[in-house]
Input
Amino acid sequence: ILSIFLGLFYFGSVMLFIFGNMSEFRWLFSNNVAPKDRRPRREQRKIYDQEEIANQLVSAVLNLSKTKMGALITIERSNELTDLLKNGTMINAPVTAALLTTIFYKGTTLHDGAVVIREDTILAASVYFTPSTKPLAGKVGSRHRAALGISEVTDAVTIVVSEETGRISFAYKGNLQPVNPDDFRKVLIDYLFAKY
Output
C-alpha cells in the first residue's frame, strides 16, 4: 500500500510540475508534423546592426554623390524581391561602402541596374526594374524611373544618385524625394527603422 501511495504521489507531482510549466513541455503535446513557427516572415527577420548598415550606406552614397557616380540601391522591406533578382548577378556579400562604391564604378560590368539589399546583405547587382510610366515634372533619367517603378509595386526603399548632378533622391511608395546630403543620414535611418 505504501509503494502504491508513493507511486501515486510521484505521478501526481510529475503531472503537477508539467502542467505548471506547460510552455516548456508543449512539444510533448504538439503535432510534430506541424511547422514549428507559424509567424509571418516579417517577424522572423534576422537581427543585425542597423546602425552599422546605415553608416556603410551613408559613406557609400555620399561618396557616389560627390564623385557623380550614378547609383541605384534598393533596400528590401516586407515585400521580398527574390523573383526580380533573376535578371541580375547574385552577390550575397555583406553591405560595405567599399563594395557598393566598386559596384557602381563606371568601369565595372555591374554598374548599370540596381543593387538589392536584404537586411545586412547585398543580394544582387545589375538588377533591372520595370520603369515607371508616371508623368513627372522636369528631366528624369532612367535610374529615377526604375526607382519609381519598383516603389509603385513593392514597399522597398530605393536610393538614387544622379550621374549628371550627383543629386540624391529616395523613391518610396510611388514618390520621389530629393534629399540634401546633410539630411541624408536622418532620412535613411527614418526609412530603415520604420515599422512595416
